[in-house]
Amino acid sequence: MHDKKVRRRRAVLALLVAISLLLLTAYFGESPSSPLHSVQRGIVAVLSPLQSGASTVLSPFKDVGNYFSDLFTAKSRADKLQTQVDQLRAQNASLEQKVINDAQLTKEVGLDQNTSLAAYQKLGADVIGRSATLWYETIEVDKGSGDGVRMNDPVIGNGALVGKVTDVGSNFSEVTLLTDHTFAVTAEVQDNAGDTGVLSPQVGNPNQLILSDLPKPGPNQAGPQVGQQVVTAGYKDPTNPALNSLYPQGIPIGTVTNANQDNLLNNGQITVSVDADLRHLSSVQILISPQAGTARAQVP
Fold this sequence. Notes:
Layout: H1 2-29, H2 35-111, E1 121-130, E2 138-141, E3 154-157, E4 160-168, E5 173-177, E6 185-189, E7 196-202, E8 205-212, E9 229-232, E10 236-237, E11 240-244, E12 252-258, H3 261-267, E13 270-274, E14 283-288
Antiparallel strand pairs: 1-2, 1-14, 2-5, 3-4, 3-14, 4-5, 6-7, 6-9, 7-8, 8-13, 9-12, 10-11, 12-13
């Protein structure tokens, strides 16, 4: 029984193949006006509207599918690009910080040539905090009494004076910057006259300093000029040489930005801009006197 079914299926298959071959032979052998070609055209004419309608109906679904496919592809590309951007930003920030640190260290190395600093130990410290309110007035560094830091030790950075130690812990110190309203230091203009005065923040504009109590220039003296360097004046009591000022002589502080002659004659004042970039300090040096227990004058 099974063999008969198999033989019957094979016979039907062979018949269909034979008919197909005959039809193909007749189709390709006949002219375009033959009955088979006419039948083909009729079938195409019947099915063509159905195919067109199906294509029109399915077109929105196809467009939606293409939209989501393009959307997913674009999102994947955007994610990859964002990852690359984040990596490049991190690398750029790291490089910029290295440039800033190198510039600060270069200035500090140049300041090491100052002979007035020879008697001091220069203790490097990293900035670990800033004032939460007027943050440019104080900074916190990672060195304290355990490292030999004491109250009123001078602090330099960016190759210039930045402030002094005003609070000391065992492993940290607070530095009051020279833009703080309580800060003052005796300073001199590096010109032929070497005029000396008291340098303090300008009221209402702490990023500018006022050098006051300057002597009036003589008839043949030009007085301080814009662009001249202002440095710490240093101090020694003639009756007691052991009493030195808080700040060694010759540390750069700023540059003269306004030397109006009328203001100088009437008020004895000029305007000075800060040399150190106080907003971007990442490291400083604390000047520690090696003579432990030596008295130091409590004058600027």
